[in-house]
Write a structure and sequence with these properties.
heterodimer; A: about 140 residues; alpha+beta; Beta-lactamase Inhibitory Protein, Chain:B, domain 1; 2 domains; B: about 150 residues; five-stranded antiparallel sheet; 5 strands; about 30% strand
Chain lengths: ~140, ~150
């Protein structure tokens, strides 16, 4: 009787373990891994930005070098050309997925005569990282 | 403001689309999307209203995501975002227990619990007409982004 009870306990544990493995295997088979990278717009070429000279370059020069701006803003008496791009990296492993996106902006300020007054480019943000773990920071 | 950002920045729509697409076809998923590195209170402690200039802000925090006009003066805005989502399909393992269920198309034997949120956070700096900082403010939604099992 005791041996039967032990045997049935072992059998139940074995069946339970197999069920857990089967469920996990089934779920795993439905997921998978993926690493994706995407971009919106071109990353700015520092040489193009450096070629813009304050007090000399005009709207036409800037547009010829950097293309048409993504936005034109009028702030504080300045017309401002805004350019931006985005870089996206996404990682998926089994049930975990994380997508990191970073944007980069460039502003060119013009005076009332349409000549460049200032360029706001600042420090380049580091590119996004490939991660899949969605917890923590 | 959020609606305007969505209109101006197609990336936000793309992000939402990517978020929803990635979540499909998987019975169990923890998913997170982040935009830019969050700016924290310590990062902006150098700002002294009435003294700090736009140039100093740019040097420390980088170029803002938006510059807007207001009647008082220009406003610069830094955008950062955290979105979290948890999803589970409670009936996904059913064909393992009842093999006859396997003949039913997958879309008819789903019971998904899905919950999440998006926290569109901003840091705004208000300038006077000489580009001197007048004030600054955070707009943060820490409660918006949590993994939750129960959506009700």
């Amino acid at each position: 009787m005791g041996r039967d009870s032990h045997a049935s306990r072992v059998a139940r544990h074995l069946i339970a373990s197999m069920l857990v493995i089967a469920v996990f295997g089934e779920l795993s088979a439905m997921t998978g891994c993926a690493f994706v990278r995407g971009k919106y717009g071109d990353r700015f070429d520092p040489a193009d930005v450096e070629s813009i000279k304050k007090g000399t370059s005009t709207r036409t020069d800037v547009a010829a070098r950097l293309g048409a701006p993504d936005r034109i803003i009028e702030v504080n008496g300045h017309e401002i050309f805004q350019y931006y791009d985005y870089d996206l990296k996404s990682g998926t492993v089994l049930f975990f997925s994380r997508t990191n996106i970073k944007g980069q902006d460039l502003y060119v300020f013009f005076n009332k005569e349409g000549v460049v007054d200032d360029v706001a480019f600042g420090k380049l943000k580091p590119p996004p990282e490939f991660q899949f773990w969605p917890f923590g920071d | 403001m959020t609606v305007r950002i969505f209109m101006q920045r197609p990336i936000f729509l793309t992000l939402l689309l990517a978020f929803s697409l990635c979540a499909s076809g998987c019975p169990l998923r923890w998913q997170r999307v982040t935009l830019n590195h969050p700016i924290k209170a310590d990062d902006v402690s150098f700002i002294v209203p009435g003294q700090t200039t736009l140039k100093q802000v740019l040097e420390k925090l980088g170029v803002p995501d938006q510059i807007e006009h207001s009647t008082i003066g220009p406003i610069t805005q830094y955008d950062f975002l955290d979105a979290k989502e948890f999803k589970v399909d409670l009936l996904a393992p059913l064909p393992l227990a009842v093999s006859a269920v396997a003949v039913v198309p997958g879309s008819y034997r789903q019971m998904e619990l899905q919950s999440g949120g998006i926290g569109p956070d901003h840091f705004r700096v208000f300038f006077d007409s000489n580009w001197i900082v007048q004030s600054y403010a955070f707009e943060i939604h820490p409660q918006a982004t949590e993994y939750r099992l129960w959506p009700f």
